[in-house]
Every structure is written in structure tokens, then in C-alpha cells.
Design brief:
It is built from eight helices and five strands; from the N terminus they run H-E-E-H-H-E-E-E-H-H-H-H-H. Strand 4 and strand 5 form a beta hairpin. Helix 1 runs antiparallel to helix 5, helix 4 packs across helix 6 and helix 5 packs antiparallel against helix 6. The termini are far apart.
Length: 263
């Protein structure tokens, strides 16, 4: 009975945390958020400052003006944010086809992405998607779930030795955490950001149909390099294209001024 007590106590603690931190994303999906918006903004800002020290920053005025133009069109429409005063955009000089957004309104764009995102609308697809991660508090969600998973793993190490619960702990907190919870959950976040980002870019004066063209470009650029969808936190290119095509047909008619950001 004594070996059961730490397990039962941890289950009670984790369950209590999950219930007290239950929230809903912008699309209505249930989330567990253990940290405040200000805590996550501080973490995002600190991480961004460190990244700026490590990565080469691109200072080309034409490139920066173009990226800033697309970003501003989207962030201006969002209005003031509760946990930070303004959005900061930095262009990193790298061949990586990548971009990110962190809590605290920090956005990073790699110059390699500009070779794949061929126009303002395709770049807006990526920026809207990354901002969608921030708006849906995906970083908070990811860190929170990691905290809960780590608590479970630490507990399993304490009770598994000689315990009748060894196989259950391995299945539920080992392989289960890796593939049954964290990996698919990452894919859910990616799909959710596609929904949010598509709405944002369309409302900001960009052509949502270009999101499909962007992912066709991505598919061509990464042929043979993408892992199987089952073990990826991102939907496959074909799945993403199909989902975006379906989402575009569901967008309400939006009468907004067309953006004109030029590179």
C-alpha cells in the first residue's frame, strides 16, 4: 500500500492543477494553462533577447520594411494586447525556411522563408499563423503540459522499481507521453493556428487563397525531407493544403482594403 501513496498523491495534485487551470482556446478547444500571460510574456521576451545575441540579424532596409509592412497590417487589426505594449519583428539572416512568434509579441522571420513565400499574401499566411500561436497561448499550453508530464515522469521513477504499476507507468507516462499526448497535441495546435492565421490575414487585406500556394511551395521545397505525418507535430503538406482549402470556403465575405506591401 505504501508504494501506492506517492502515485495517488501526485494524481490528485495533477488533477487539481488541470481543473484549476482549465481554459478554452479561440476556437473553443479545451486547454490547461498553468502560467499567467505576464509570466509567459517575460519568458518570451527573455528568450527573444538571447536569440538576437546568437543569430545574425538582417539589416537590409528593403527586406525589413517589407516584412514590417505585412506584420503591421495584421497586428494593427488585433489592437492593444493585455500582456505587452507592442509587437517586435526581427529578420534573421539565415537560409532556414522558418518563422516564429513568442509570447510578449516577439516575431522572428528568417530570410530563407522569403524564397518560398513568393508574395505578400504568402508571407502573411506564415505571419498570421505564427501570431495565431500567440493569440491561442500555445506556448503556455506546451509549457504547462510539459510541467505536468515531467511531474508524472518523476513520480514514475520513484515508484516503478519493484512496483506492480511499472507497466502502467511506462505505457501512460513514457511512450504515451511521447506519442499519445504531446505529439498529436502539437499537431492540433498547428491546425488551430492555421484556422486563426487564415482569418487574421483575410481580415487584414491579404488573399487567403495564397495560403494554399504557399504550402504547395513548401511541399516542393521539402520533398524527401519531411518525416511521416504520424510522428510529426505538423500536419503533412497535403493534409494542410486540404484543410486550408476547406477553411477558405467557410470564410465570411470580408470587404477590406487590399494591402500593398512590396519587396
Amino acid at each position: 500500500m505504501q508504494t501506492q501513496q506517492p502515485l495517488l498523491l501526485a494524481i490528485l495534485i495533477i488533477t487539481s492543477l488541470m481543473l484549476s487551470a482549465c481554459a478554452s482556446s479561440p476556437t473553443g478547444r479545451q486547454q490547461v494553462l498553468l502560467f499567467s500571460g505576464s509570466e509567459m510574456s517575460q519568458l518570451g521576451s527573455q528568450s527573444f533577447e538571447e536569440l538576437k545575441k546568437q543569430e545574425k540579424i538582417n539589416h537590409d532596409p528593403k527586406i525589413n520594411s517589407y516584412v514590417q509592412c505585412v506584420t503591421n497590417a495584421i497586428t494593427t487589426r488585433l489592437g492593444p494586447q493585455p500582456d505587452f505594449s507592442e509587437w517586435e519583428v526581427v529578420v534573421f539572416d539565415s537560409e532556414q525556411v522558418n518563422a516564429f512568434a513568442l509570447p510578449g509579441g516577439k516575431i522572428g522571420i528568417y530570410t530563407g522563408l522569403l524564397k518560398i513565400a513568393n508574395n505578400q499574401d504568402q508571407l502573411a499566411t506564415v505571419i498570421g499563423h505564427e501570431i495565431g500561436h500567440v493569440m491561442a497561448q500555445h506556448s503556455n499550453e506546451r509549457v504547462s503540459r510539459s510541467q505536468l508530464a515531467n511531474a508524472g515522469l518523476q513520480l514514475s521513477n520513484a515508484v516503478m522499481s519493484g512496483s506492480e504499476y511499472q507497466s502502467i507507468a511506462m505505457a501512460g507516462l513514457g511512450l504515451g507521453v511521447q506519442y499519445g499526448i504531446l505529439m498529436p497535441y502539437g499537431r492540433a495546435q498547428e491546425s488551430e493556428s492555421d484556422v486563426i492565421g487564415l482569418q487574421l490575414m483575410a481580415e487584414s487585406g491579404f488573399d487567403p487563397k495564397q495560403s494554399v500556394e504557399l504550402w504547395k511551395n513548401m511541399a516542393k521545397a521539402s520533398t524527401g525531407n519531411q518525416p511521416p505525418e504520424l510522428l510529426s507535430t505538423h500536419p503533412s503538406h497535403s493534409t494542410r493544403i486540404e484543410e486550408l482549402q476547406a477553411l477558405i470556403t467557410q470564410l465570411p465575405a470580408i470587404n477590406v482594403k487590399r494591402q500593398n506591401c512590396m519587396l
